[in-house]
Amino acid sequence: MWIFQSSGKMPIEDMRLVVPNANIKLTVSYQNGIVAAINGKSFLSKEHDITLAGLIDVPVILDADEDVTTETIGVEFNPQGAYRFFHFTLNDIQNQIYSLTDILGNIGNRLIEHINNTKALQQKIIVLQQFLLSQLSLSNEDLIFEYCIKKIASSKGRITIKELEKKTGYSSRWLNIKFNNKLGVSPKNLCSIIRFKQYYQGFISGNEKLFSRNDFYEVYYDQSHFIKDFKRFTGLPPARFEKQINDFGKKYYL
Q1: Could you say which of 23, 45, 111, 124 is the most buried, measured as most Cβ atoms within 10 Å of its Cβ?
Q2: Domains, the chain
Q3: Three-state SS letters, the chain
């Protein structure tokens, strides 16, 4: 859980680009809204609303809606646990953002009203935490699914679907259905995001020479494979991306 605060829109020269990190995000926009551009579509997390972003596997451009003070509460759910809080097919909201009212109906609307009627930030957070704990209590663990997520995470995205089949005894078709329902993407897609994530985190942490290291490509077939994934998740080849200003995107990602 985090708090985002800004005096207005981001600087024009800043890319405002956020790279996929495999988490599903809940946003409480209690002062001003947030605009997101995803796959050529614009989504608004409007002021006084709560929105849920499905798992995103493409680059996103974010900015404040109006050029005024912006304050937002964000909650990120990792791939292993998101399904315990949201009890519907998460593939339905993949690469999209919806108001909690559209997703949960009256339950979502009541939460939005409760938080809007709560003035203090700390109290808003408490209300949100209580809601999430109540959602968590409604579902049971899916041990096979969580086992697969752990294996993908521990291998840093290097494990193959064939290996998951052998370790679980379930077919790739069954695993794909399970992942689409409980996460929104296939295990292969998640592996790609996790694999790229470890290197992108190193880059934005200040390792400027990260992309020129030979051992960087040990988890990719070759350099062209890496560049293809890089362009997929950032929208630019590495050499061009390194020259861009993306301060907001780095802070948001971290």
Answers
A1: 45
A2: 2-136 (2.60.120.10), 143-253 (1.10.10)
A3: CEEEEECCCCCCCCCCEECCCCCEEEEEEEECCEEEEECCEEEEECCCEEEEECCCCCCEEEEECCCCCEEEEEEEECCCCHHHCCCCCHHHHCCCEEEHHHHHCHHHHHHHHHHHCCCCHHHHHHHHHHHHHHHHCCCCCCHHHHHHHHHHHHCCCCCCHHHHHHHHCCCHHHHHHHHHHHCCCCHHHHHHHHHHHHHHHHHHCCCCCHHHCHHHHHHCCCHHHHHHHHHHHHCCCHHHHCCCCCHHHHHHHC
